[in-house]
Amino acid sequence: MEISLVTLKDARNIFAAAEKRAAEIGQPMNIAVVDSGGNLVAHERMDGAWIGSVDISINKAFTARAFNIATKDLADNSQPGQQFFGIHGSNHGRIMIFAGGIPLKKNGHVVGAVGVSGGSGEQDQTVAQAGAAAFSVDA
């Protein structure tokens, strides 16, 4: 079975949808898209987005792909006493355990991820969801 790649064109579509949502909520964002190996396909920093959130957005995308789980859900399971407590210290500190990273699926397989950072967790999540929704499952 062939699993499609996340292309630069896909990343641009994700950026457009995510940017639109970020503009609607009035919060400039950093948006990252990674491929099936967790490698960066593209990153975009909207005008006015925090410089400190560049790496966070990339690492949210990496985390969502590395574990095939939304970072928001990973966060819920990584609190003290939970099964993934301490996971944020793994992978050389690249693991993000707060909202804004979402796996991208094609034909039921995770083929990449989007990561968003620059606002509150809720803002990051809603912008990431908009970006992920723009990813075409039939492309």
TrEMBL record:
<dbReference type="InterPro" id="IPR038084">
    <property type="entry name" value="PduO/GlcC-like_sf"/>
</dbReference>
<dbReference type="InterPro" id="IPR052517">
    <property type="entry name" value="GlcG_carb_metab_protein"/>
</dbReference>
<protein>
    <submittedName>
        <fullName>Uncharacterized protein GlcG (DUF336 family)</fullName>
    </submittedName>
</protein>
<dbReference type="Pfam" id="PF03928">
    <property type="entry name" value="HbpS-like"/>
</dbReference>
<dbReference type="InterPro" id="IPR005624">
    <property type="entry name" value="PduO/GlcC-like"/>
</dbReference>
